[in-house]
Amino acid sequence: MTDASPLCYGACVEVDSDTEAVINEGFKLGCIYCKMRGEVDATATVKWSFKGSGDSDFSDCRYEICTFIIMQGDEIIDPRFYERLVWNGSKHTRDLQDGSIYILNVTYNDTGTYKCEFSRLLKYSNYDYQTAIEKNITINVVARLTRGMASILSEVMMYVSIIGLQFWLLVEMIYCYRKISAAGEEALRESAEEYLAIASESKDNCAGAQVAE
């Protein structure tokens, strides 16, 4: 029996790349170019270029890092990146949407601007349509990651919320304890009054019985 259920595809979201790399560690250079018309067949290629912190332009061909073309394989041109680049984007498809790459063993010489050039050919029934996008990512290499202000504020707010919740819980516990304690005292008082009333009534009955005799 053939399964006629439709195939499911993950949604594409264009997320900006990180910009701070740590020395001697790996770093992902993100470059995503989503296709707006998922039903249209397409092919796409990605080319990455690099401009070091002391370079003036991308124009010199020796600064071209790599051209990822699925049909021709992955070609690394710049010798500075030999055996240090790994494809980290879309796999098993010619219709690339994620053109990210991963740099192994980051060095301070990797500081600079990386250019991601995405080219896509949309294949309609009667014609082809070419689209392209270019993204520049400036990377700073540091000894260790520095936390952003948003991250610090988020952590502070988290701890403030935890302390606030604990204080509210303590107040609720004290309130409940006092309420239960007050209810217990009231119950004891009512029991004592009831006992005294019964005892008084019994005493009166005994006195009445003695008079009748």
From TrEMBL:
Residues 6-138 form the Ig-like domain. SUPFAM superfamilies: Immunoglobulin (SSF48726). It is a single-pass type I membrane protein. GO terms for biological process: cardiac muscle cell action potential involved in contraction; regulation of heart rate by cardiac conduction. The chain crosses the membrane at residues 156-177. GO terms for cellular component: voltage-gated sodium channel complex. Gene3D superfamilies: Immunoglobulins. InterPro entries: Ig-like_dom (IPR007110), Ig-like_dom_sf (IPR036179), Ig-like_fold (IPR013783), Ig_V-set (IPR013106), Na_channel_b1/b3 (IPR027098). Its main location: membrane. It comes from the Eukaryota. It is found in: Cell membrane. Keywords: Cell membrane, Disulfide bond, Glycoprotein, Immunoglobulin domain, Ion channel, Ion transport, Membrane, Signal, Sodium, Sodium channel, Sodium transport, Transmembrane, Transmembrane helix, Transport, Voltage-gated channel. It holds the Pfam family V-set. GO terms for molecular function: sodium channel activity; sodium channel inhibitor activity; transmembrane transporter binding. A voltage-gated sodium (Nav) channel consists of an ion-conducting pore-forming alpha subunit functional on its own that is regulated by one or more beta subunits. Forms homodimers and homotrimers. SCN3B is non-covalently associated with alpha subunits and induces the formation of alpha subunit oligomers, including trimers. Interacts with SCN5A/Nav1.5; regulatory subunit of SCN5A/Nav1.5. Interacts with SCN7A/Nav2.1; probable regulatory subunit of SCN7A/Nav2.1. Interacts with SCN10A; regulatory subunit of SCN10A/Nav1.8. Belongs to the sodium channel auxiliary subunit SCN3B (TC 8.A.17) family. This is Sodium channel regulatory subunit beta-3.
